[in-house]
Amino acid sequence: YSIWQACPNSVLEGRCPAEFSSNLPRHTCLQTRFLTAEAKVSAGRLNGKMREKTLSMDTLNPQVKAVEYAVRGPIVLKAGEIEKYLEEGGTKPFSEVIKANIGDAHAMGQQPITFLRQVVALCTFPELMDSPSFPEDAKWRALRILQGCGGHSLGSYSASPGVECIRKDIAAYIEQRDEGVPSDWENIYLTTGASDGIMTILRLLVSGKDSSRTGVMIPIPQYPLYSAAISEMDAVQVNYYLDEENCWALDINELYRAYQAAKLHCQPRVICIINPGNPTGQVQSKKCIEEVLHFAYEENLFVMSDEVYQDNVYTPDCQFHSFKKVLYEMGPEYFNSVELASFHSTSKGYTGECGFRGGYMEVINMDPEVKAQLVKLLSVRLCPPLAGQAAMDVIVNPPQPDEHSYKQFHQEKSSVLGALADKAKLTEQILNAVPGIKCNPVQGAMYAFPRIFIPPKAVEEAKALGMQPDMFYCLRLLEETGICVVPGSGFGQKDGTHHFRMTILPSIEKLKVLLGKVRDFHISFLKEYSALE
Question: What do we know about how this protein assembles, alone or with others (predicted)?
């Protein structure tokens, strides 16, 4: 009608455009066609013949249907429903939902590191360079980053591997961290969080059909990104089990067992390690890392080392060892041949800047022709967010002792890591005092993964409801206490064992409340199913 009104009266003469369509402007003829199409759709509805959806569950990519991601699974959806119910005035035996399901530090109340936010703010709004409120060492870093950006703006694209000066800063950081082990900045690739890098490397590795399909060795328990990626890419998941009785250590004999069993139905090509561990919180020893690298060397496996928690080590007798440094110390035969991709992120550590989606990977000993394919694959997604790249730069290039911002930066960093160490110890102590719960020391990362005893009657009830027993347990915990944790079955576990993963990120006061509620619930749960003994 609006098009009809807009047409000259000399053309329309007050009549419907359909009466003289040959004389109408093109846009009016198109309008008529759309009106005709609408009429046909209406007629179709009347005849009960609706057009079928092109994309339905029947036509959906089956690999997408196979993907599961427990960290944001059914428990979290239920927690969201309860939160909304409480906001609308509903009543529960609790006043709030405590989400201990995900390692989102700022959502749990952790404050940002001032210096990081100052640099990113200056990069985002360069006019702040004139403000006396910002220290000169932050301004200098921001100016250097902006000079590496197109148009000196964080709103530009960067080269697909990332801003060159940031890649160089990362290489310098790795050399310093690894006490002089050389790092080539051209082997550094900025990523959209560590997950982006992990997915990219797996895409390069996955190939073949039937018995030649790529097998991906992953630790069990594992971070569900790995199993989800393997399902999406139609690769073969090869589980190797961590030793819960030995503080989740990696047993080399278990690696050989898993590898030999997998060779019967796939071609194992890659081994993934998470150190410090998620969800298990262990820190692998140097000897263990040497054994893994020797195993990879012998069996010609690509090594993927997820090291996003490298700053999160709490137990005094534990130390983070990068896979690259250990590989170097094993000698040239190993260091110049084993293919290794190492990953880091802004999301964890002491900064907890999940929302910036910053990260990087260092890839060594990759075939030059394959490396060109990697760059091509990275170019398809153009580049990672530049704000995330800037945040990553601050992590690898923090204030030095002779700079103005060092004192405050050091205090904030120490405060965050000190609090996490206290909470790791507190979590272990309280959980281990509960009958039917056993929690290994939280040596690093941000999570506890306690083993829980679930009585046989509760197991039977869960099976009758079509649930995993620990899913049943965690749903009951959520509905009765408001505490949201993730069932161990979402991470993988040995048959007959049950666990849940919880983050240690809440404030010390809230963590005490959370752990107290878990203790009371678990005792009540055992009494209900007559298994307190």
Answer: Homodimer.
